[in-house]
């Protein structure tokens, strides 16, 4: 059996363990594996390398992806690029393509399955943890540990200078990273996309805690957090990527300025940005990524196409690609309720 693997979208700790797991399964069965370089761009341009058990054996501890990645969308220029993807798969004689990525990458895989019956299998990837049909995505644990370490370091300078520190995390549509990081670091306030920013309440919390003796403050804000339309505040510049997403950025700076204006407390902001994607995966993400890769390899051997591997409880199970894409998984209400305990 010949299997292709690609990694698309933002890089993520745990991608290499997935590749390693899938390669080992296919090679153990006597198959061949080819890695398409830089996501769907490699599928369009026909760029690939051969993957073996030997050249993927020690990649489990490496961050990012040895295959490279991109946000290339074959359906942006579908008449030219989709036939090129099909031609690449035919040229390599691939019996299956394992696509590892988020909603955009898996969305393309699902379209190729529906429109052309290309033999695809999906593996969910995002540090944002916002993909439906799976309980946890690899990369999430690594990212919140990075945020936690950063906030722990920022806390010392905030306390020394009696400042409020506003830390902007990733999270376009859902506040998983921000909320979990806020809980893990005892942040004074956390802002997430699921709830409109209430400046009055946040200012009241920060002032009350200062009056009771706390000489500094920590606020964590997800990049997708937003004000109500009535506030008339926006941080979007209107620029969009290949998949039609508006590029975000700047909410942390905006919130920091408003806090300082309304409280008089010296306030600074830090945008962690791509630091959250970098470095070696945590032990949890190495294991989860490996398990996902193994199960994706098993699905390929069974010709179980049009499906995605997903974590349900402690089990990795197949779910239909169609059920897994197109809908973001927002923070569940119970997590928001638990966080509310610490705003009193």
TrEMBL record:
<keyword id="KW-0479">Metal-binding</keyword>
<keyword id="KW-0324">Glycolysis</keyword>
<comment type="function">
    <text>Catalyzes the phosphorylation of D-fructose 6-phosphate, the first committing step of glycolysis. Uses inorganic phosphate (PPi) as phosphoryl donor instead of ATP like common ATP-dependent phosphofructokinases (ATP-PFKs), which renders the reaction reversible, and can thus function both in glycolysis and gluconeogenesis. Consistently, PPi-PFK can replace the enzymes of both the forward (ATP-PFK) and reverse (fructose-bisphosphatase (FBPase)) reactions.</text>
</comment>
<dbReference type="InterPro" id="IPR000023">
    <property type="entry name" value="Phosphofructokinase_dom"/>
</dbReference>
<dbReference type="GO" id="GO:0030388">
    <property type="term" value="P:fructose 1,6-bisphosphate metabolic process"/>
</dbReference>
<feature type="binding site" description="in other chain">
    <location>
        <begin position="170"/>
        <end position="172"/>
    </location>
    <ligand>
        <name>substrate</name>
    </ligand>
</feature>
<feature type="binding site" description="in other chain">
    <location>
        <position position="223"/>
    </location>
    <ligand>
        <name>substrate</name>
    </ligand>
</feature>
<dbReference type="InterPro" id="IPR015912">
    <property type="entry name" value="Phosphofructokinase_CS"/>
</dbReference>
<feature type="binding site">
    <location>
        <position position="163"/>
    </location>
    <ligand>
        <name>substrate</name>
    </ligand>
</feature>
<feature type="site" description="Important for catalytic activity; stabilizes the transition state when the phosphoryl donor is PPi">
    <location>
        <position position="125"/>
    </location>
</feature>
<feature type="binding site">
    <location>
        <position position="268"/>
    </location>
    <ligand>
        <name>substrate</name>
    </ligand>
</feature>
<dbReference type="InterPro" id="IPR022953">
    <property type="entry name" value="ATP_PFK"/>
</dbReference>
<dbReference type="InterPro" id="IPR012003">
    <property type="entry name" value="ATP_PFK_prok-type"/>
</dbReference>
<dbReference type="GO" id="GO:0061621">
    <property type="term" value="P:canonical glycolysis"/>
</dbReference>
<comment type="similarity">
    <text>Belongs to the phosphofructokinase type A (PFKA) family. Mixed-substrate PFK group III subfamily.</text>
</comment>
<dbReference type="GO" id="GO:0047334">
    <property type="term" value="F:diphosphate-fructose-6-phosphate 1-phosphotransferase activity"/>
</dbReference>
<dbReference type="InterPro" id="IPR035966">
    <property type="entry name" value="PKF_sf"/>
</dbReference>
<feature type="binding site" description="in other chain">
    <location>
        <begin position="126"/>
        <end position="128"/>
    </location>
    <ligand>
        <name>substrate</name>
    </ligand>
</feature>
<dbReference type="InterPro" id="IPR012829">
    <property type="entry name" value="Phosphofructokinase_III"/>
</dbReference>
<feature type="binding site">
    <location>
        <position position="10"/>
    </location>
    <ligand>
        <name>diphosphate</name>
    </ligand>
</feature>
<feature type="domain" description="Phosphofructokinase">
    <location>
        <begin position="2"/>
        <end position="297"/>
    </location>
</feature>
<feature type="binding site" description="in other chain">
    <location>
        <begin position="274"/>
        <end position="277"/>
    </location>
    <ligand>
        <name>substrate</name>
    </ligand>
</feature>
<feature type="active site" description="Proton acceptor">
    <location>
        <position position="128"/>
    </location>
</feature>
<dbReference type="GO" id="GO:0070095">
    <property type="term" value="F:fructose-6-phosphate binding"/>
</dbReference>
<dbReference type="GO" id="GO:0005524">
    <property type="term" value="F:ATP binding"/>
</dbReference>
<dbReference type="GO" id="GO:0042802">
    <property type="term" value="F:identical protein binding"/>
</dbReference>
<feature type="binding site">
    <location>
        <position position="103"/>
    </location>
    <ligand>
        <name>Mg(2+)</name>
    </ligand>
</feature>
<dbReference type="GO" id="GO:0005945">
    <property type="term" value="C:6-phosphofructokinase complex"/>
</dbReference>
<keyword id="KW-0963">Cytoplasm</keyword>
<keyword id="KW-0808">Transferase</keyword>
<dbReference type="GO" id="GO:0048029">
    <property type="term" value="F:monosaccharide binding"/>
</dbReference>
<keyword id="KW-0460">Magnesium</keyword>
<dbReference type="GO" id="GO:0046872">
    <property type="term" value="F:metal ion binding"/>
</dbReference>
<keyword id="KW-0418">Kinase</keyword>
<dbReference type="GO" id="GO:0006002">
    <property type="term" value="P:fructose 6-phosphate metabolic process"/>
</dbReference>
<comment type="subunit">
    <text>Homodimer or homotetramer.</text>
</comment>
<dbReference type="GO" id="GO:0016208">
    <property type="term" value="F:AMP binding"/>
</dbReference>
<feature type="site" description="Important for catalytic activity and substrate specificity; stabilizes the transition state when the phosphoryl donor is PPi; prevents ATP from binding by mimicking the alpha-phosphate group of ATP">
    <location>
        <position position="104"/>
    </location>
</feature>
<dbReference type="GO" id="GO:0003872">
    <property type="term" value="F:6-phosphofructokinase activity"/>
</dbReference>
<dbReference type="Pfam" id="PF00365">
    <property type="entry name" value="PFK"/>
</dbReference>
<protein>
    <recommendedName>
        <fullName>Pyrophosphate--fructose 6-phosphate 1-phosphotransferase</fullName>
        <ecNumber>2.7.1.90</ecNumber>
    </recommendedName>
</protein>
<comment type="pathway">
    <text>Carbohydrate degradation; glycolysis; D-glyceraldehyde 3-phosphate and glycerone phosphate from D-glucose: step 3/4.</text>
</comment>
């Amino acid at each position: 059996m010949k299997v292709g693997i690609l990694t698309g979208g933002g890089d993520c700790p745990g991608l290499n363990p997935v590749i390693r797991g899938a390669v080992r399964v296919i090679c153990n069965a006597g198959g061949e594996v080819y890695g398409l370089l830089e996501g769907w761009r490699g599928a369009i341009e026909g760029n690939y390398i051969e993957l073996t058990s030997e050249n993927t054996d020690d990649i489990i501890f490496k961050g990012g992806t040895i295959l490279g990645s991109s946000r290339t969308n074959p359906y942006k220029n579908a008449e030219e690029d989709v036939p090129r993807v099909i031609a690449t798969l035919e040229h390599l004689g691939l019996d299956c393509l394992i696509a590892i990525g988020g909603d955009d990458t898996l969305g393309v895989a699902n379209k190729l399955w529906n429109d052309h019956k290309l033999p695809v299998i999906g593996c969910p990837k995002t540090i944002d943890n916002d993909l439906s049909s799976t309980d946890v995505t690899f990369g999430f644990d690594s990212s919140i540990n990075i945020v936690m370490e950063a906030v722990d370091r920022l806390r010392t300078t905030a306390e020394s200078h009696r400042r409020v520190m506003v830390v902007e995390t990733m999270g376009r549509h859902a506040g998983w990273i921000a909320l979990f990081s806020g809980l893990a670091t005892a942040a004074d306030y956390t802002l997430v996309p699921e709830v409109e920013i209430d400046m009055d309440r946040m200012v009241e919390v920060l002032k009350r805690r200062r009056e009771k003796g706390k000489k500094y403050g920590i606020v964590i804000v997800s990049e997708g957090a937003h004000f109500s339309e009535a506030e008339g505040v926006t941080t979007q510049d209107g620029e969009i990527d290949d998949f039609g997403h508006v590029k975000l950025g700047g909410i942390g700076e905006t919130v920091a300025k408003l806090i300082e204006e309304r409280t008089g407390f010296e306030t600074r902001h830090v945008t962690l940005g791509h630091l959250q994607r970098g470095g070696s995966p945590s032990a949890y993400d190495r294991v989860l990524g490996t398990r996902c890769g193994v199960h994706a390899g098993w699905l390929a051997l069974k010709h179980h196409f049009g499906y995605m591997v997903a974590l349900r409880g402690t089990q990795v199970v197949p779910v239909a690609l169609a059920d897994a894409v197109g809908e973001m998984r927002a923070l569940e209400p119970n997590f928001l309720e638990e966080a509310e305990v610490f705003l009193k």
